[in-house]
Amino acid sequence: MKKNWWTYIWSGLTFLPRALWAFIKRVGYFTFFIPLLLLGGLIFWWVQTDIGPLFSTELTVTPTPTVIQQVNDIGELITAEFYGEVVHSLAESYEEEDLLALRLTYDNARKAYIQIVKENQGPGVPAIHQRQANVDRFMRTPAATYDREWFRVLMNVLTEPDQLLEEMRRMEWPIFFQKYESQVIQQKNVRRTQMNDEAQLIYLGRGLVKAGYDLAAMDASQIQRKADTLYFIDLDPQIIDADINPWFVAPENHPEGGIKGYEVLREEGYPKEQQVKRVKLGCKKDLINAALELELYRKAEKIAEETLLDFFRLLKAPADSNLQYVDIRPTREFARVRAYLADQKIDREEVREIRQYVATDSIPLPRRQRLKEQLLEEVFGLEHTDGWYQLKRSWQP
Amino acid sequence: MSRCIAIFLFALAGLTACQGPGDEQKIPDERVIVARLHESAQLATVEYVLNKVVMGKKTNSLLGFTIGESSFLAETQATVKAGVDLSKLQPEDVSTIGQSIIVKLPPVEILNFSYPAERFKINKEYTQNDWFAEISQDEIDQFYQEAQQAIRKDLAWMGIEEAAEKKTRRFLENFLLQAGYEEVYIEFQKGPTLENQPLSQPALPK
Q1: A243 to B116: CB separation less than 8 angstroms, yes or no
Q2: What global pTM score does this model have?
Q3: Quick one: pLDDT at residue B79?
């Protein structure tokens, strides 16, 4: 009989059952089925009795001592609290990092190419040859070779190098990104997929951000009494604490068994420790951003001022009996940043002023550094983390 | 210095009279689910930095027999701040007789408990993930939750209460003497001991 392809498929599919049946016949029915029946009976008996679950998982924690490492005297006054719940994923945190890396690569490449074009400009060379020479020279620069991985992503956005470089020469990153956003995102995602990192993690974070004043950093010269008003000069509100703890509310303090600070919403592919930290840190940054958007500083300032006077009436101190007003004045830098951000945009004049202000030597170094960090964070979307400026999540180019 | 601190401190105690419900506002960010602002008046005077080793084990069993066991070890650090919640100070807690003043401060509390993920470091030499008992991230978080509760229980013997009372008393005495009083008596009201206070921070959303 001629065998057709159905016969082969059927033989393949039935191979295992046939082999099993042949095995049973060889060892004998009793020899094969009795152990199976015994095992089934044992499982049935186990399930019927209260010995324990068939399959169990147990987590145990070994008690360890809590060691005091340091005791510090502080003087922090907290006048406003923010409670928030945020969601942050590993993909989002990569998104921020990738966009920052792309932007830096773009800026470096653009700067290098503009320099090359400037140096190679000369009479007597046909434009087409000149351009090719520029591209060839650029491809040997560190901007094209050092940042190769990210530069390749940009190269895939516009596959012709000379076309890409001309576009880069003409426009800065925000405009380029706006024009080629979908292509950039697509190429960026292709690169991320090629890195073969399948881990996924999404956390829900619940926590508190507290703002107030660090009184320990203040000195007597910052207090001035004029007539019936007490002034606190150069006293900025600041974020005192921003925390998302493992437990937000512990089980013993909550009728439904506690509220977690961090709650895993999705986990795939066993994320690494650093990836977990990255997402948790992302949650915390989102929490701080949300608090700032709700004007946490302003609230902290307002509460402190409003309530001072009420209390002096309560205190009835002999030396302060004539006090009628209390006025807390932040530093000029803090006030300026607030003014710049008041209308949600920065115009050219303000940018010029900011640059000049940051550059001036009349501002003491720590304050200048603080102002710079604040401006980079709030105005340009960068924030200072572990010695690096990173792209802030909410910032859009 | 101490004068200004005390001025602030006392002034904020007036919050008692003007505490209102927290401001609530929806903010335009899809990643922020809940956002609420609250007023507060807390003075933190002592900070403790604590180290804790978190050691855990996961055991998977079938029919009572262990089929897989994984171990976990991490070095962690917590920061605890203690002080007084001035919003709890009432007008009747301050009494003056001539040039003497008696202030009954609210009990010392844990004002902030910070157990940040960035201060957790898993010991890779000790931590072993068995194929039959792989520890998930959720389970690692459970180890940290247990550790947080253990630290909270340990706070009772660390002398935080005494340290915070001493520091706060010093602030107030200096201020009140400078403010014109000749005799100053500072007392602390009785409250729940530190280990019996709620684990999380006060002013939780309702």
Answers
A1: yes
A2: 0.74
A3: 95
